[in-house]
Amino acid sequence: MSAAGRGAVAALVVSHDGARWLPLVIDGLRAQTRAPDHVVCVDTGSRDEGPDLLEAAFGAVRSAPAGTSYPEAVRLGLAEVGDVEWLWLLHDDSTPAPDALEQLLAAAQDHPEADLLGPKLREWPSLRRLLEVGVTISGTGRRETGLERGEYDQGQHDEVRRVLAVNSAGMLVRREAFEALGGFDDQLPVFGNDLDLGWRAAAAGRTTLVVPQAVVFHAEAAHRGVRRTPLTGRHTHFQERRAALFTLLVNSPGRTLPLQVVRLTLGTLLRVLGFLLVRSPGEALDELAALVSLRPRSLLRARRERSGRGGADVRRLLAPWWLPYRHGLDLVGGVVAAAGNQAADVAERRRIAAAERDPESFAARRPVEEDDVLEADSGWVARFLSNPVAVLLAVVVLVSLVGARAAFGPVTGGALSPAPQGVGDWWRLHLESWHPLGAGTAVPAPPYLLPMALLGTLLGGSATAAVSAVMLLAVPVSLWGAWRLLGLLGRLVSPRGLPRWLLLWGAVAYALVPATSGAWGQGRLGVVAAVAVLPWLAHAAVGFADPEADRRWRAAWRSGVLLALLVAFAPVAWLLALVLAGLGVAAAAGLVPDAGRRRSAWGPPALALGLPVVLLLPWWLPAIQHRAAEGLLLGAGRLPAPMPDGLDVLAGRLGGLGAPAWTGLLVVVLALVALWPRPTRIPVLICWLLAAVTALLTLVLSWVTLDVAGGSTPASVAVLVVVWQGALVTAVVLGALGAVELRRASSTPMPTPWRTGLVALGVVAALVPLVGLGWFAGGEHRLVEEDAAGVPAYMVQSAAQAPERGILVLTGSVRDGVDYVVRRGDGVSVGEDEVLGLSPRDPALAELVRRAVSEPDDALATDLSERGIEYVVLPAPADGDVASVLDAAAGLVQASAEDRATRAWRVSREPAPDALDGPGSWLRPVLLLVQLAALVVALVQCAPTRGASRTEGSRT
């Protein structure tokens, strides 16, 4: 460099569609107290008047194609600069303060070791908010500025100090150093090139300083999405994240590279999940695409280029290792605080609405509430004890847990089979297309195994804990859901909402349905789960009546997911939903004639109905394919399904082990009385219409008999009984609200007979939850530990070692007929019972059993071993004729049994290892992938919307 060029500065402005900012940028350059010696402008295919503005201000403008990257544009400008010592880089959306260049050059003179210097960046147009005062990068790729979000500039960071990097907007760089470092990397076309350059400079032993006395105002047009270029398009987040990953992977020390790759891969997956949870699928896809887009060959080439340019330690310039974890804690704290603030805002809005609805009542009540709050400040115990409703709710929950005490530990009995040893058995059953059960079967696993497997995984991999959790928490979860649903309906019917005592009665009366109906005592896992899901589904479905189309679509996604969960446990619920959706659309079309032509009117119910079909595709399609379509009308649990008679249905009972039927009939009487109050007659009639449709569907299904492997069974109507009872409880609550509204509107005292009648109704209504709760606390149930059906323990242990070591259990007699079942593993567990119950009989195995008990031949042992049979058991009381035939059969050796009345034989040949091998299926993986994709999309659509904040990646 010549003596003439020493100390000279060339300002290099790169522009692309920047006409909206360029007038102020030009004015800022002209107003510099130390003007640059040269101004070089490069335009990358602008379609606005930006090039004309630059040409009028500074002369000729170097033009480049629209797809030119920032590193290439800087190189083009560098060729036009001439003999200078310093390059001052400016963007077309960054305007310098009048003394910015002077302050940078003064710092360079005071610190001759510095090769890169950067100003303090403030937000444009606010002018006071800080953006950057130097920048570094964390181990997760986050751009770290050390600033609080929205922090204002009050001189608190005005200290010249060494940093890892400074932003290219306003960067003053020594030309010799810039060329020695190779300039900006072409692999970083828009974002991240400043961090990469600063890291390479620090590794080469060069110094980067931030000079806060120099100020540049930056609009961050590309980062904020204000401007789109051919290099960023719509995927700004993709470019930013890719730049961050590239910068880390090519500059990190070789000894930490494997750990860095693992950390960034796992971190990307977690970030994808986080974006999906907040309904930001675009950012989630950008995250994943950024990781996949990195080519190992390009990364290795970039690392080789950097390896020959010094190896100074830059660790002290990087962000501390713990900083990402602190950000995570801050995020969690922010979410919790936001939820608390939102809840407080909702409570305040309700308080204001209550005051506006009834000013006098609110004013009279207000001093008491203030006194209560002051007294409650002494602690949460005082607040809790001062609220009778909270105390009663707590008592209900505690008593329900006492009533469900049999579920503390392994639960089995009645319709509930034992849980498998681990949740892995459920995952295997759900994923495989061929099950080594019985004689081997391709009948698909029941759909409820997926949510149960997810729950068991969350509970530490224990299937027993998952079953116990459903049985234990059925009443509390139902109570919570019913409280939310009835509270919402009360606010829709009356501006005042439901009185809390009425809300308490309705929630408790419904929450006890799994116990009072007898479903809990019979071990009907599907019904118990359905009771818990139903009010949440109804709460979501209320959103179909929302006037805003977006809210209706959101309600459709949530209703569809919850309906799929309900159908997984009780498939008949889909038929009821189909009928109700048809009636609802028809009613809407009658009230609003053009509703049928609007997709936002019929689309949400259609989506809610169609979503379970897609989410449960791996179940219903193979069920039809493998002659197990009867499962579409059956629920979870052992067969046969319960078939209550007319009186049981009316009382909401499944027959046996339910609370006294008269308590259920009281609900019917109260629901009829609920038709009397005029203010709520229409919503009560709607509840009765729902109940009538449910009763009609129950009647139709009661005529259906299904032939399955275990014999004949009626269709499962248990969930319909639950819906019937829930509709009547809702009718009672809304009718009582109507009576309260009448009383409030009346200015005359109520006659004594009427007052006595209402008191009597209140006493009768109180009996429903009181009797139900007391009955559940000490009621009867069939949840007891079961034995192995007479099979000796050592045989069960052998069968548990491998599926081909089956036990052929024979029952019956020669005169009445001999039946059989093949037992494998440690017995039939939850989920396997439905598979076996729907699997068609194997004719070849039936013929083999007939030969064994009537005319055994020399090939009997070989045939049994090839079918995976190790033992034959005739449980007590063993039929003598069958036992004598088996005693004489060749290849069967008598075996011991604990019970002398039980007879057992061992097959002389070892079972064939491939006895249970079945055909594979390409369809199963496809259906599972469709289910997974649909589930992810549905959950994303159900989540609350959050605008994605761009706080990471390089800014330009």
UniProtKB/TrEMBL annotation:
The record's section on Gene3D superfamilies has: Spore Coat Polysaccharide Biosynthesis Protein SpsA, Chain A
Q: Does the keyword Cell membrane apply?
A: no
InterPro entries attached here?
A: Glycosyltransf_2, Nucleotide-diphossugar_trans
Gene Ontology terms, MF aspect: transferase activity
UniProt key word Membrane: yes
Q: Where are the transmembrane segments?
A: 389-408, 458-482, 502-520, 527-545, 565-589, 601-621, 654-675, 682-704, 716-737, 758-777
Keywords linked to the UniProt accession = Membrane, Transferase, Transmembrane, Transmembrane helix
Q: Name one Pfam family in it.
A: Glyco_tranf_2_3
What's this protein's name? GT2 family glycosyltransferase
